[in-house]
Amino acid sequence: MLKHTIILFIAMITIICDPYPKEGKVYKNPKDLQDNTTFALAPLMTEQQVFSEAQQVIRVEVEWLSTTDTFRFAYAVIENSGTAALSKRTKNLDTFGSYRGQLVDTNNNAILYYNSLGTGQQYRKLSRSLTFRFPIPQDVVEFQMIAENPQTGIMEHVLTQKIDPQTIPVVKNSMTFNDIEVRVLQQATKLPKLIVNVYAEGYDTSGKNSFWQDAPKVVDRLRSKNFPMFEHLEFRGVFAVSQQKLGSAKKLGFPIPERDSFLGLYYPYWDDFGRWYHVIYPTREKRFRQNIGLVPYDYPIVLVDSSSYWGVGNFKEHTAIPARSSSFTYLLMHEFGHYFGLNEEYDSGGKTELAFAPGIREPWSPNITFLNNKQNVKWKQFTTKGVPIPTPKSYWTGSGPYGAYRGGYAQTPPFGKSYKPGFGCIMNSGSNFCDICRFSITQRIRFDLGLETKPFSFNNTQQCCK
């Protein structure tokens, strides 16, 4: 009996420690298994070329105080990291994100700009600071922050701070444009466009040539998977030398040492949520944001000089994957999906770091539901008449029909409450996004381009599956 109990205990520990579908169980792109592809590189961009369309923004950092679980205004600076798309999307309320910053006109209390980021209550512990970027207002404004209550999930005002644009300093960074290299990897073929920067992390001086062969793979794989709205994305590679490689996951003690790499990313042992060793977050949010902000950007994708199996994506924070993993395509697509707000659709692996507050009524992630409204499930227009909601697993034939199947959300409390559209999506272990996730990414990109006033609505299926 004791022997069987020990075996069962070990099996349970193994299940809990699984980060997400194991490498051998996920879709493998043949290119990933033996990739000798070489890419022709565009010339280095000049500083004038890089900043020809850049716009100045106010970057606000808010610090999370772990001892009191409250937020403190840290600082505001002006930097040249903005884009035309950012100036458009910040004019509209973003209903995604567990943390929202907004600038309010002090004369009439009108909200001038919005910016949202982060999935769930765990995000504040992983990043420890939150960053919001806004166009520069003309007069004194009030910065307000609204955050998901970590218990109830209700969005609450947690911080207010007056900001005078005339007194905000220009960012001072120890790195300059002379310390980086920037190349166009793929120009957008349709306007308006979003700038997707592929950043190097953990590459030392000898790794520069490797990065410039690794970075184009991002474009190659997203194109090969017919990524939604691909033609509106302009990809640029950004290289800078890191003094430290990522290495293996270790608990480095407290106070948390700042990682001496380009972006300062490391495994977040400081929040031992169960599988911290399979994601990486900034050791210092200030370093991370200053250095990705050396150039204009909309979406940051980080390639790490590593061949291990791990990956991270969090809504409007960052996407990071190992450059030479044998599951490169899967990790890129899956983690980039998280950046757009998609949640997990697998059912094992312990608690996801993308967990919402335990008391939340309905998560805002577009691909999971707690079915509080069975008659109007989020993706109702993708379901087939006659398919019951919730949907028994026996209805799934391999490619449909879409319904509301028990599962997803990893092994996150409240257990047994999460439902997903189906079983074939790359947000689980499939080879591509399902129609629901493709649609939601399309809507999100259209919102980020300023083409939609809402980031997500299944009432408009014209953009479905583009």
Structure report:
Helix content is 19%, strand content 23%. It is an alpha+beta fold. It has 3 domains: 30-44 and 174-340, Collagenase (Catalytic Domain), CATH 3.40.390; 53-167, Sandwich (Immunoglobulin-like), CATH 2.60.40.3250; 344-358 and 365-452, no CATH class. The strands form 5 sheets. It has a 6-stranded mixed beta sheet. It has a 4-stranded antiparallel beta sheet with strand order 4-3-6-7, with no helix packed on it. The protein has a 3-stranded antiparallel beta sheet with strand order 2-1-5. A hairpin with a 5-residue loop joins strand 3 and strand 4 (111-117). The longest helix is centred in the middle third of the chain and has 17 residues, at 208-224. It is globular. It starts with a helix and ends in a 17-residue tail after the last helix. Mean pLDDT is 92; it is low at 1-19 and 459-466.
Strand content: 15-25%
Net shape: globular
CATH level-1 class of the largest domain? Alpha Beta
Beta-strand segment tally: 17
As residue ranges, the low-confidence spans are: 1-19, 459-466
Radius of gyration: 22 Å
Question: Roughly what is the average pLDDT, rounded to an integer?
Answer: 92
User: What oligomeric state is this?
Assistant: single chain
Characterize the main sheet: 6 strands, mixed
- Looking at CATH, the homologous superfamily of the largest domain is Collagenase (Catalytic Domain)
- Give the domain tally: 3
Secondary structure: helix percent: 10-25%
Q: Please write the string of helix (H) and strand (E) elements.
A: HHHEEHEEHEEEEEHEEEHEEEHEEH
Please report the distance between the alpha carbons of the first and last residues: 56 Å
Q: Supply the number of helical segments.
A: 9
From the helix content, strand content and strand pairing, which structural class follows? alpha+beta
At CATH's second level, what is the architecture of the largest domain? 3-Layer(aba) Sandwich
Q: The CATH topology of the largest domain, please?
A: Collagenase (Catalytic Domain)
Arrangement of strands in the largest sheet? 8-10-9-13-15-14
InterPro entries: MetalloPept_cat_dom_sf, Peptidase_M64_IgA
Protein name: IgA Peptidase M64
Pfam family, one: Peptidase_M64
GO molecular function, one term: metallopeptidase activity
